[in-house]
Amino acid sequence: ADAERTQPTLTRSTCCYCGVGCGVLIESEGDRITGVRGDPSHPANFGRLCTKGLTLAQTAQSLTGRALYPEMRLSRESPRQRTDWDSALDTAAERFADIVRQHGPDAVAFYVSGQLLTEDYYVFNKLAKGVIGTNNIDTNSRLCMSSSVTAYKQALGADGPPTCYEDLELADCVLFAGSNMAYAHPVLFRRLEDAKARRPATRWIVIDPRRTDTAAMADLHLQITPGSDVALFNGMLHHLIWEGLTAPAYIAAHTDGFAALKQVVRDYTPRLAAEMCGILEADLIQAAEWFGRSPASLSLYCMGLNQSAHGTDKNLALINLHLACGQIGRPGAGPFSLTGQPNAMGGREVGGMATMLAAHRDIDNAGHRAEVAHFWGVPALSGRPGTPAVAMFDALRRGEIKAIWIACTNPAHSMPDLNSVREALGKAEFVVLQEAFADTDTAAYADVLLPATTWGEKSGTVTNSERRISRVREAVPAPGETRPDWWIACEVARRLEVLLRPAQLSRFGYATPEAIFAEHRALTEGRDLDIGGLSYAMLERAGPQQWPLPAGAAQGQARRYTDGVFAHADGLARFKPTAFQPLAEPTNARYPFHLLTGRLRDQWHGMSRTGRLPQLFEHAPEPSLSMHPLDAERRGFKAGDLLKVSSKRGQLVLPLQLSDELSSGSVFAAMHWNGRFLGSGGINETSLATVDRQSFQPELKHAAVRVEAADLP
Ligand code: SF4
Asked: Which ranges carry the 4Fe-4S Mo/W bis-MGD-type domain (predicted)?
């Protein structure tokens, strides 16, 4: 029998979870994925995987909850029925076209996802902006990294981190800001741990209101009051300026705006800043000294800075520190925003957001619009601003947007203020859901459900946190009647072209994702993210590559701005003075607790994949609300008690877990648990929809809440 056993087929691909972008080797036999292991040749992980990546084979095998056939319903009152692809696509396209004809192109919207591959994203963006003529396409990446995008553009002149993963091993001081990297980017964290073991003098500073597993490993944990990051960074900069630890020659040669920054930072004495942050002045000074005096300082930051009504300011205040000390554009130094999703970066590259155009072009730049319109062969692109995620669902609720196409994401779980989002989806005239899973919180609202292929079944590319583009490859055939996301988007685009632009030749005749990639590549030429020299053939031959990689380059560029020339027209980086601003929703007598949200080690987003494997619950078996033991004792709560957590917007019931990782006055809940586990949408029942005015990213990390014993029947 052994002799008869066939060898498994090996397919090189990329993990579908976080922005680390680990390379994987998929073993398959027939239509089954039988194993997944780390790809030793991939430069992100060199063969390592975390628990989520290591269990990909098991989670991929299950068809539980999968959407396998197109479904449609004739009225809101009737259940969806199985249908065929042509009927579903014709209906979806006709309803969208009708609404566009009656109410104009901005009456429809697309809400897509950082889980999509770059090729999927590209086609959706072209469909919305090039065929329908609306900039109403936004993504769940808006909830994750748009503050970083905005800050990079303002300070450095272009989106994208200046750093690379190798910098983790070369930094002498690592400053983690709002990042529980041990859980959210585990394989990178292992790289950092190895580097620290080799170079124990490397200093780790962790800024986090919780003593996370990342903070527990730090040389210095600054357990700041929630939302006080800008005061901290300004206080650190004050110390650096007045102690002569900045880099005057670098500031003079490569930056603009230092005098104005100095004026603002003057007020943030270390004593005052430390008081605002609820930490010791000596600790703030220690952090500034390590950051300023280290030969190479690297900051790693994530949702703790981004998911805030002042997320852009928090990013900018941190970048100010790097520019002032010349800690950028050198090995081991720079501000490094870590992306949450596997392809949030790819979405930025193709311009798949309401606030940007393809290849880092701007909607409000008439020249950029003309370039893209010419390239796509359409008369013009709309200059009207698109509607970013939170405003999109608000407009849907008010009836200004009448139809929405949701692809590969679960807004009825992940958006803030879920009552309002559910109301929006309930009021929408028409909802299309393109999804691999049929049992998400959002699926209940779909008039048309289009079953999509998912990881292991589809091909394309993704870009990880260090700007590295990797191939994702199909290892097994698509189950049921599922289809790739790019194919679905092209099919509806072709129908809408006929309905809305009949004189126009179809621009969606791609036979493969490779053809889409080639078109995307051509649009990047001459731009800061130029990948004119990159092709599927090169990725096959030379492995994953970082952008930029212009025509003729032998490989991608590891670091940016190494020559001190930034992407602003004059080549200078900009200091952006930022002032501390209070939380969007301060605590008060009625809502006295800071509710902090975050991730669990072994779960991913809304658990549509990880939530189906028992072994991934061993680390955190059930939802819970963490509270400091002193706060619990004062209120007479015991571990395991069911508590009602309420904000001004909504509530949910969770069992109590005692934790001294939090300061008194704060409680914590993980963001993953959803309707399948709770019977409600999860912690976003309580979160608020206030957004950053520059990046439009909502304050998902914090809300003021009340906690009381649950009064259960
Ligand atoms: Fe996947 Fe991220 Fe884990 Fe790597 S670190 S295996 S990309 S979840």
From this structure: 8-64
Residue whose CB lies within 8 A of the most ligand 1 atoms, among 13, 17, 613, for a mutation test: 17
Q: What is the mean pLDDT of residues 27-43?
A: 96
- If one residue of 26, 54, 185, 466 were mutated to test the ligand 1 pocket, choosing by the most ligand atoms within 8 A of its CB, it would be 185
Reading the block at residue 678, the tokens are 């709770």
pLDDT, averaged across the chain: 96
On whether the CB atoms of residues 122 and 508 are closer than 8 A, the answer is: no
What is the reported pLDDT for 6?
66
| Residue 712 structure tokens | 């259960």
Residue 679 has pLDDT above 80, yes or no: no
Beta bridge partners of 297: 173
Between CA 364 and CA 373, with CA 368 as vertex, the angle to 5 degrees is 110
Best probe residue, ligand 1, of 15, 51, 192 (max atoms within 8 Å of C-beta): 15
Pocket of ligand 1 (CB under 6 A): 15, 17-18, 20-22, 45, 49-50, 52-53, 185-187
What pLDDT is recorded for position 5?
55
The tens digit of pLDDT for each residue in 380-393 reads 999 999 999 999 99
Beta strands in 32-139 (DSSP E): 32-38, 71-72, 81-82, 108-112, 137-139
> Which residue has its alpha carbon closest to ligand 1 atom 2?
18
Instruction: State pLDDT tens for residues 123-149.
Output: 999 999 999 999 999 999 999 999 999
CA of 183 to the centre of ligand 1 (A): 10
Rg (CA), the chain: 25
CA of 57 to the centre of ligand 1 (A): 14
- How is 384-452 classified by DSSP, letter by letter? SPP--HHHHHHHHHHTSS-EEEEES--HHHHSSSHHHHHHHHHH-SEEEEEESBS-STTGGG-SEEEEB
Kindly provide the ipTM of the predicted complex, given to two decimals: 1.00
Tallying the residues shown for the chain, one arrives at 713
Kind and range of the H or E element at 122? helix 118-126
pLDDT, tens digit, for every residue of 179-220?
999 999 999 999 999 999 999 999 999 999 999 999 999 999
Measured in Å, residue 192 CA sits from the centre of ligand 1 at: 15
Q: Which is it for strands 71-72 and 81-82: parallel, antiparallel or unpaired?
A: antiparallel
Kindly give the distance from the C-alpha atom of residue 342 to the centroid of ligand 1, in angstroms, as a whole number: 9
Residue-range domains of the chain with CATH = 9-61 (3.30.200.210), 88-143+343-532 (3.40.50.740), 146-338 (3.40.228.10), 593-709 (2.40.40.20)
Q: Where are the alpha helices (DSSP H) in 452-527?
A: 485-500, 513-524
Tokens at 687, concatenated: 């979160």
18, 470, 602, 613: residue to mutate for ligand 1 pocket, most atoms within 8 A of CB: 18
Ligand 1, atom 4, lies closest to the CA of 22
